[in-house]
Amino acid sequence: MASFNEKTIYELNDEYSIILIEDFNNHLKIELYQNQILTYDVLLNDHQCSTITHKLCETKAELYNLLCDLLITMKSSISVTNSRYLEILLPIYFGHEKTRTKVWIFKIEFQRFLFIDDKKMDEISLDPLDWTEIRSLGHQIMDDMINYLSDIRLRPAWRPMPPIVRKAIAQTDIPLKGQSPFEVYDEVCSLVLPYSVGNNHPHFWGYVQGTGSLIGAFAEFITGTMNTMSWGGHQASIYIERQILSWLKVLMNFPNDDTSSGLLVSGTSVATIIAMAVARKKFCNRTMKVYCSKEAHSCLIRAIDLLNIGKENIISISTNSERQIDLKALEAALDPYSCGFIVGSAGTVATGAIDDLKGLANICARRPNDLWFHIDGAIGAVARCSKRLRPLFNGFEHADSIAFDLHKWLFVPYECGCILIRHGELHKSTFSQPAASYLTLMDGGITPSEGEVFFSDYGLELSRNMKSLKVWMTLKTYGIEKFGQIMEQNVDQAKHFVRLIEQYSNQFEVLTTGPLNIVCFRCIVSRSHVIDLEILNKLNKQMLITIQERGTAVVSPIAIDHNKFGLRMCITNHRTKMSDIDKFMEQLSQLADELLNLPEYSCLLN
Ligand SMILES: Cc1ncc(COP(=O)(O)O)c(C=O)c1O
């Protein structure tokens, strides 16, 4: 057997030869010579030798010995493929029968050999010394992630994190020295992956959370790899974002030209802050009151707070029986002496109610210099993808600003929202600042002063990631029509659930539902006699927690008319099937029986 420190030249064929050596860093080094010129090499440690050979050789000495043996006895089993890979192919016989043969194949990938002087060897980088090993980790992660999604139905909708897992995460100090990325990934698999909030699952119907998509996940990997800073300038990311904004303007029936503007942001909360800041700029220093229905989302209050508009300037308007803003009440409340930021909800978070957007637009049109018409389309705006649902959203064409999410019903992976503003110049003047000297625009190059858009002039962030690629790949891969169909499917599933609850009316009741994908319901005991609301609320809370903790499904809590605790189902999910809804109803019914048998709820039955 050859000694590990020997240097022998092995000719593989007329063109290639290799040398196996132990390198000064205690690696096994394999050099590949092409026509006697060193063209590629690779350094392998024990771990890499084990990975590459699929654990056939546990150490570099074992791989060295195996290669030496093969090169002496069975040279033909080693070949150079694609001039970068050394492919080793060996039949393994086990047992006595010759038929029981297994062919073991593994590849060793080389790096192009560069002459590096000793000084440069001391320089460090985060890149791997050897890309072969990290490639195998990358392939492993890709496979695992695809399985993670394809097997999602086999797992519970949600599972609590056991204390031992939380402890394992909390226990570690800031790492001083690095560890193997394989080990780190092992920790991801055991500590992180199983414990998401569950929104990819077909039975996730809580809050308003999108289900993402595999294509979106691929886009995130590409985005992370490109790692391009997307503040602006001459680069693909900016052109893609411009194109997406143009598509979204068309989808929202907004002027698709340079008079209007837009920006991809983290979500509707940030989009709302931007819209309010631009409106305030328009109204100079005059008082601006914010008018919205009492069903409007709390992100408005945060924006008012942050922009120092003053909570006394929030005017909460009552709603009608459809939970839409009451237009008459709004008109009566409008202050003729101050400016107004009028909010229309295109899908309220509690019930999915859509305000009369045309009616709001008409009111704003009467005082265009004083009133700004803003649409909160976080949930519903993208439902304009569906021809059937689009008429619900008439009035978008009159908005001064529209804030909406792509990470909800458009299934772009978190985070991604959008703000569109009708007044592009005003938008830019709200956020742009005189360029610091290091951001000076040039006559050409990456930052030309002519022709390029600098998105950092339109929002809060200078450093921005490339949100555009995941939107672009998602829209191109699936197309608007498919999204429209999925949204219609979700709306039909919600309507089906309402019908099911009506069939189980001795156990359940619908509290509210709207024109979209949201149903609020609760378990009841009897319609015929007065029941203790406090205990009924407790029962419903227990029901919600049990559904989640058993991993059956995820629905979220809601208070209807202030004091009725309800369960809220919002189907923003391309994986949900009608049969999932049927099964859930059966599980709800069984759970209701089970809970009502508990002593603390039995009084409800008397
Ligand atoms: C109606 C409405 N507006 C605004 C928001 C805030 O959006 P984001 O969480 O994307 O910031 C939400 C979130 O669910 C919402 O439902």
From TrEMBL:
Q: Note the Pfam families from the entry.
A: Pyridoxal_deC
- Highest taxon of the lineage: Eukaryota
UniProt GO molecular function: carboxy-lyase activity; pyridoxal phosphate binding
Q: Does this UniProt record's set of keywords contain Chaperone?
A: no
Give the sites modified to N6-(pyridoxal phosphate)lysine.
408
The keyword Transmembrane is assigned to this record: no
Q: Which cofactor does it need?
A: pyridoxal 5'-phosphate
Gene3D superfamilies for this protein: Aspartate Aminotransferase, domain 1 (3.90.1150.10), dopa decarboxylase, N-terminal domain (1.20.1340.10), Type I PLP-dependent aspartate aminotransferase-like (Major domain) (3.40.640.10)
The family classification in the record reads: Belongs to the group II decarboxylase family.
Protein name, entry field = Uncharacterized protein
Which organism does this record belong to? Rotaria sordida
